[in-house]
Amino acid sequence: MTGYQPISCDLYDWLEIAARWQLPVTLTGRDGRQWADRIRTIEAREGVEYLLLQGGERLSLADLASLELLWQGEEKRIRF
């Protein structure tokens, strides 16, 4: 992917937390599509990072606009 920009470490940490703890998340893409699922894993292919969701979807981190989750009793909305 030409011009791929990795997300910041702080934002990446939230994705890792959600994956590690198998938290239910709502992800919103830059195109407005939404996925309510759990993150199975994070992987890199040809220099691009992807989320693999439990439901089988593969999402490029570069295409994400936001992540919503419940963490320690507090609703979090992280914008990418």
TrEMBL record:
Kindly name one Pfam family recorded for this protein: ROF
Q: Signal peptide position in this chain? A: none
Q: InterPro entries attached here?
A: ROF (IPR009778), Rof-like_sf (IPR038626), Rof/RNase_P-like (IPR023534)
Segments forming a coiled coil: none
Q: Report the protein name in the record.
A: Modulator protein
Q: Which organism is it from?
A: Aeromonas caviae
